Amino acid sequence: MHQVTIPVNMSSPPMLPPANSAIIIKEVKIQQLHSWEISISQAKQIQTELASQISRKSEDIKPRFIAGVDISAPDARGIARSAAVILNYPELKVVETRTAEDKINFPYIPGLLSFREAPLVLAVCQQLSTDPDLILVDGQGIAHPRRFGIASHIGLFLNIPTIGCAKSRLCGTHIPVAAEAGAHAEVTDNDEVIGVALRTKDNVRPIYVSIGHKIDLPTAIHWALECCCNHRLPEPCRLAHLAASGKSINTAYSHQRRVFT
Q: Is 251 part of any domain?
């Protein structure tokens, strides 16, 4: 298992290409769809425009490698750490871990967190030597006021199927979720189904699963559950959260999958 931490200078981002260009790293093509040096109003406009490019249809997803990505809160210096952890499937054993650190410049504004977090997440994804077939993102996909959360943002940039697996609800409402693991309730906003509240462990608070990119909602629910290992969060997200927090995951993971019927 590879574990590497890479400092990244986001104030002068050498890791990302100019707008409207692309770079090839292994098999992953990373599109730079817009500048990151933008105003709040420009960020909202970009979300609205790019939301129309999100695919809510599934490809034939047969993943060999599933990634989880997350980012820490900035420390007292304003430095945050992003993490990408890749697990094989179906074993769900860790095959690669990468982290990257840099200062966060965009302000904390609910609904615009992807402009604060995505550049550093993309930077760490660029360091992966294993190409993921599916990415679980700790955050919202289309379960977002403008239907464009960080899971959708990352998916569109990487052109890889992504799933939003958020710990809390940003918008919409849902009925109570049954107590047993595997139960879910649709989250709706303005009469549109934007995701589900999904119970991943008996009598434990649900997570919020939504389409990121290149996947439909039933398939997103399927893979979120497939990646659960008796914890609230799917294992890729849980391990990415630990790695972003600076904790070793060498002995922190359990790859005993739970079978949902």
A: no
pTM assigned to the model: 0.87
**Domain at 63, CATH number:** 3.30.2170.10
User: CA 234 to CA 170: how far, in whole Å?
Assistant: 19
Instruction: Work out the pLDDT band at 60, boundaries 50, 70, 90.
Output: confident
What pLDDT sits at residue 12?
Answer: 42
User: How is the beta sheet containing 162-166 ordered, strand by strand?
Assistant: 2-7, 94-103, 79-88, 65-71, 134-137, 162-166, 207-213, 192-198, 184-189
> Is 77 inside any structural domain?
yes
Query: Whose CA is closest to 187, among 212, 207, 162, 215?
Result: 207
Residue 252 located in a structural domain: no
Mean pLDDT of the chain: 89
- Structural domain includes residue 70: yes
Select from 118, 81, 116, 77 the least CA-distant residue to 212: 118
Total domain count, the chain: 1
CA 197, CA 207: separation in Å to the nearest integer?
A: 6
Contact between 213 and 57 (Cβ < 8 Å): no
- Give the residue numbers spanning the domain of 182: 2-244
Q: Is the separation of the CB atoms in 54 and 211 below 8 Å?
A: yes
Angle between helices 150-158 and 113-125 (to 10 degrees): 40
